[in-house]
Every structure is written in structure tokens, then in C-alpha cells.
């Protein structure tokens, strides 16, 4: 019976994906006017309570209100249209209009984004937003993304990731030694965790809960709101504030689809995307605070890492190696050094 349910579930997902993607690209080469009615589909991989969904719903609200329903927006949460990579591929191909995702996931398609995946890149939120709201952020959202078939509509933030463990808290480097930590399929993440002494394991987010239950991995790395909405806090009882990865997030539209729109609709969509991602960040900050309190009440042990210097040194030790494979990476590091007035390789 369990196997039958799994088969039926898989078939339903496949049908939903096929239905949703059908028609998205069918008229993708036809130029629309500012009077045309059409539907924009936005997908993401997170739960309905997540800030990705909040951003998508805000975009929907703005677009439908500003156009009096001429443009309708459909939001597909929780991987309804497939895994994160599948939806990004669909946007690139023009068979899905939009996706909300992190730049870590996007770096598999726009490799320039990998520079922002490096651990302990920024010292605080002031540095993070100074860079993201500058010409650097603009270049990454537009020039580099558009070359690969995407257009960034706005930059948000998912805060910083922390180690969320089943086995033990992390206070220092010794505590993470040999720990099997689930990471995304990113060479930057893998190299960073290996440098810090952990044993990174790549797997899809959809497989994580079971992997933690079965002991396939010892820990995940997540922001509080993601740990809460995914329910991994029910298994992982130690949340250590390592704050290792900064998490830019973006709302992307298919460049192929975008070029079919009237100039008026293009301007409206870009403005709505920017507003939606500003809302995402405000929503996320509150969600993280509330999630951490709920996790504490449920018995999660939360601890500070008082001296992050050894972690920072380890992470920075692989910067040069990582940047060898990142297009424009060294150039961007130099730009950030001039902008922030410091050595980006220093501890």
C-alpha cells in the first residue's frame, strides 16, 4: 500500500508539473501588448510559511492590484512544480515564468554567483547590504544572470546559516570534526566545510528529514525559520550559531518570457519584484526570531560560538582555490575591497 501511494503521488506531481509548464512557453516568442491578459507562474521549494512564499504572494498582490487582474499570478510553493533545480531549469528554458530561490542554488546556472557562497565573506549586515545594493549586486542580477537566461527582479536575504545537529552542539572546531553535515550540491560549500573539518554530504533538501532520522547525516546547516518550517528541529536538538554562510536570495524571471512583455509591463514587474524582495527580508527577520523561540520552547539547545576566528581562518584558507573556478570572482573581490575598505581575505 505504501509503495502504491508513493507511485500515485509521483504520478500526480508529474501531471501537475506538465500541466503547469504547458502553455508557459507556448507563446513565449509572441510580443504582448500592455492590454493583453496573461498568467505568471512563480515556483519555489519552500513551505507556505517561508519568506520565499511571502515574497511570491506580495508580488502577486502588487501585480494583480496594479493591473486590475489583467495579469494574474499563480504561486506554487513546497516544490509543487518539482525540485529547486528543475524549476530553475524551466525558467531558463522559458517554460516557467518565475522562481524565488537562493543564489547558492542559482550558482549552478550562473557560476558568477559562487563568490557570495564563500563562508564568512561579510562581517555584518552593513557590509552585506552595502554590496548587494551597489553596482555589484546590479551586475550580478542583470548582466551575469541575463547572459544565462534569467533576470533578477530584486535581492533579499535569508540571514546566515548555522549548524543544526542531532549529535552534539558546536562550540569550537573540534566539535565539528568529522560531523556529517548535509550541504547543497555546491563545490564552494563542500570545500568550505571540508576546510572546517566536517564531512559534507550532498543531497536534495527533500531527502534531508529522513536522512537525519536514519543517521545518514548528523546535521544540517539552516536558518531558524527553515529549520522550523521543515520540522527538522523535531530531530536536531542542537542549534549552534556558527553564522558561516551569508544567504542572498533573489526573485528571477525568465529573460525569454520577459522580452515578450510590453515596456510598461516590464517596468511594473521589475518594480513589483524589488518591493516583494524588500518585504521578504522584513518577513524573514521576524520569522527567524519567532522560529528560534519556538525551537527553544520545544527543547532545542541554542548556543553562541564565542570565538569564530578558527572557523573564519579555515574558511578563508580555501578562498584562492575556490576563486580559480569562479568567473569574475577575483575581480569582484577587488571591487568589494575598494567598496568596504578592507582586505576580503583577512580574518
UniProtKB/TrEMBL annotation:
Q: Which residues form a coiled coil?
A: none
Any Pfam family from its record, for instance, is DctP
Matching InterPro entries = DctP_fam (IPR018389), TRAP_DctP (IPR004682), TRAP_DctP_sf (IPR038404)
User: Has keyword Transport?
Assistant: yes
Name the Gene3D superfamilies for this protein: Bacterial extracellular solute-binding protein, family 7
Signal peptide bounds: 1-20
A GO cellular-component term linked to this record: outer membrane-bounded periplasmic space
Task: State the similarity comment.
Answer: Belongs to the bacterial solute-binding protein 7 family.
According to UniProt, the name of this protein is TRAP transporter substrate-binding protein
The uppermost taxa in this organism's lineage are: Bacteria, Bacillati, Bacillota, Clostridia, Eubacteriales
